[in-house]
Each structure stands twice: as structure tokens, then as C-alpha cells.
Design brief:
The chain has twelve helices and 15 strands. With 348 residues, it is an alpha/beta fold. The protein folds into two domains: 223 residues, DHBP synthase (Alpha-Beta Complex); 109 residues, Rossmann fold (3-Layer(aba) Sandwich). It is globular. Bound molecules: threonylcarbamoyladenylate and magnesium ion (MG). It is an enzyme of class 2 (transferase).
């Protein structure tokens, strides 16, 4: 199958493909999603196949309005309505109890709940309206790889497997939406994202953050959180302190390991890395870093042959919670140890 690139002037063609049961990747303000008609079970099954995604990992249903949620979900609470009022369209996914048999098992993974999201991207909202159906949309990457923040990332992973990609340039945030479970007594953050815990608490009071440290034998509530994620083939090391950089610089100068560095502009200009080091700029601050993290991991994975990647840590709050959650997964929890810099090597 030839994968077509649709421009934002070709939304009608993309909608026709969706209505024919085909897969079309779509832009959002977070990452690109892999779209299919959420009411077409055969089409939804193709999404799992194209991504290589385990079938027990449910999908987010992307809607253009609140009314579509009310069609499938049990009556919304006042808190849910407030969140929708304030944060939609935007990077907040809400999980609600469903009416009996409202959506197929392939969408929900057999749960009695479903995740809904109203993305803040005009082209995609128009695609949903023209198709006249909600769209399932997992991130449009091969399962386990960093989420795509550019149409070319989607093309790389899924070319030949999907009908098209609606290209609307780079995404705004670069990390996926916050997933908030509204089906429990106290709302629970299952995945941190661009809408922060602090912002949620300000609107609806206390929330539980269950995403912190899911142990190996625990069953995470968001099925997707148990899988290895965002992992390039080089080992990623988290760099916790700015004082680690001079140590890293010296270690790499001595051991000559081919290394990629993911850091903000201030770090890159303040240090003098040797020639075996490839820098990739995370731009300025946590906003820049969230935007560029996945693109940086993909760059080192596909366009260079670095053996290790050193990536800058940020404080674990506000947007930093989302960034550190993704970085921690891509590193498998491995941190650079300035006391034992010799452990920074290719053989891990
Ligand atoms: O920003 C985003 O959310 C992107 C864009 C494309 O919208 N989508 C995305 O989808 O990241 P995906 O499938 O990669 O991640 C959805 C997460 C998974 O961890 C999944 O397990 C969880 O949401 N999830 C979906 N439905 C659920 C449910 N009913 N209960 C608990 N977790 C659920
Ligand atoms: Mg994903």
C-alpha cells in the first residue's frame, strides 16, 4: 500500500479513507495519532496490527465535541464537566465508565471504561467532523519507539502499512496527553502530560498520581504503562545535575565512546564536548525540552550510530513530571553516576 501525505487542504480525502475503513495518521497538539473509525471494529483491529501493539492496551477515542462523549459514556459528573469546560480542546484525556456495549472490545481492551480526548488541532477536528465518527488514535509510532512529533517520524515507522498521513507540521507539546481516570472515586492521573497535576488540582481538588514508580510485578491501571517505551537502541543515561557535565566531558574524552548529548542550549554552550560527542539541542527550558525529547531520541536512533545517549534531567513537577516520566522509561531508570563515571560505556 502506498502511504499518501495529505495536506490540510485535503482533509476530505483523508475523511473518505477513514470512512472506507482505512488508517490515516493525524496531527494533534501533543504527538501524531494513528487514526481509524472507532465504530468500525475491523478498522480498529488494523491499528493494533500496524503498530505491533499488544491487544490488551486500549485506545483513546478522539472526539470533536462533548456530545459524542455523552453518547457513549455514563452521565458525566460535575467535576468531569468542569474539566471539559476548562481544558478541552487540549492535552487532557479523560477516562469514563461506558454505557453497556457502547464501544467494541478492540477499542476498550475489554474494560468497562474508555479514554476520550478532544485534541487541539483544527485540521484533525475537521477530519473528525467530516468523517462523522470519532477516531481511535494511539500515538502513530511502532510500539516501543518514541512517539512521533513530525509527519516524517510517522512515515518512517508506518509507511506501506497505512493509507495516509495528514501533515500539519511539528506538534506543539511533544509529550502525549495527561491521562486522568474519572471512573474512580478520587480522580487518578495514570499518565502525566502537558496538563499538569497542579493545574488539575486547582480545578477539581486532590487527585491521585498513580504513575509514580510502577513496580515490576504490579499491574498498572493504564495498561500501556507496563510496556517498554520510548526506547532507542543506544543506552540512555539520565543526567541529574549540571555539575555532572564536566565529568561526562572528561570521561568521554578519555574513553572515546561515541555519545549523543540531549541538553538545553545553556548546557551545550557552557561545556566543551570532545569530537566523539554529538549534541542535540533541547532548546530552552522545560518547554523546549518536552517539545524536543522524542525528536532527539529518534534522531540518535535513526540518523546516527551513537552508543550511549546522555539526557538532561528536569525537576519532577509541573511539565517536568511528564518529561521525566518519558525520559525515565527511555533510560529504563538508568542514571549517570558521577562517582563512578567509568560505568559510562558501550557495554551495558
Ligand atoms: O496525546 C495523546 O494522548 C496521543 C495523541 C495521538 O492523542 N495518544 C496516545 O495514545 O498517546 P496511546 O494509545 O499511545 O496512549 C494511551 C494510553 C495508554 O497508556 C493506554 O493504556 C491508556 O491511555 N488507556 C486508554 N484507555 C484506557 C482505559 N480505559 N483505562 C485505562 N487506561 C487507558
Ligand atoms: Mg503511545
Amino acid at each position: 500500500m502506498e502511504t499518501k501525505i495529505f495536506t490540510t487542504d485535503e482533509i476530505a480525502m483523508a475523511a473518505t479513507a477513514i470512512n472506507a475503513g482505512q488508517l490515516v495518521a493525524f496531527p494533534t497538539e501533543t504527538v501524531y495519532g494513528l487514526g481509524a473509525d472507532a465504530t468500525n471494529e475491523e478498522a480498529v483491529k488494523q491499528v493494533y496490527l500496524a503498530k505491533g501493539r499488544p491487544s490488551d492496551n486500549p485506545l483513546i477515542v478522539h472526539v470533536a465535541d462533548e456530545a459524542t462523549v455523552e453518547k457513549y459514556a455514563e452521565p458525566l459528573s460535575d467535576k468531569a464537566k468542569q474539566l471539559i469546560q476548562i481544558f478541552w480542546p487540549g492535552p487532557l484525556t479523560l477516562i469514563f465508565k461506558l454505557q453497556p456495549n457502547a464501544l467494541s472490545k478492540s477499542v476498550t481492551g475489554g474494560l468497562d471504561t474508555a479514554a476520550f480526548r478532544n485534541p487541539k488541532n483544527e485540521a484533525t477536528l475537521e477530519l473528525i467532523r467530516q468523517a462523522g465518527v470519532p477516531l481511535v488514535g494511539p500515538s502513530a509510532n511502532t510500539s516501543g519507539k518514541p512517539s512521533p512529533t513530525l509527519a516524517k517520524h510517522v512515515y518512517h515507522d508506518l509507511q506501506g502499512k497505512i493509507a495516509g498521513i495528514l501533515d500539519d507540521g511539528p506538534t506543539q507539546y511533544g509529550v502525549e496527553s495527561t491521562v486522568l481516570d474519572m471512573s474512580t472515586d478520587t480522580p487518578t492521573i495514570l499518565r502525566p502530560g502537558a496538563v499538569t497535576e497542579e493545574q488539575l488540582t486547582a480545578v477539581i481538588g486532590p487527585v491521585i498520581s498513580s504513575h509514580h514508580h510502577v513496580g515490576k510485578n504490579e499491574v498498572p491501571k493504564a495498561p500501556g504503562m507496563k510496556y517498554k517505551h520510548y526506547a532507542p537502541s543506544a543506552q540512555v543515561y539520565i543526567v541529574d545535575s549540571p555539575t555532572d557535565w564536566p565529568v561526562i566531558q572528561e570521561t568521554l574524552r578519555q574513553n572515546q565512546v561515541h555519545a549523543g548529548i540531549l541538553a538545553t542550549n545553556d548546557v551545550l554552550t557552557m561545556n566543551d564536548f570532545p569530537e566523539n560527542v554529538e549534541p542535540f539541542s533541547l532548546g530552552e527550558g522545560i518547554n523546549g525540552a518536552s517539545h524536543a525529547l522524542f525528536a532527539g531520541l529518534r534522531h540518535f536512533d535513526l540518523e546516527s550510530d551513537v552508543k550511549v545517549i546522555l539526557a538532561q534531567a528536569f525537576p519532577d513537577d509541573h511539565l517536568g513530571a511528564a518529561y521525566m516520566n518519558r525520559l525515565d522509561k527511555s533510560a529504563g531508570g538508568v542514571h549517570f553516576n558521577a562517582q563512578h563515571p567509568e560505568t559510562l560505556s558501550e557495554e551495558r
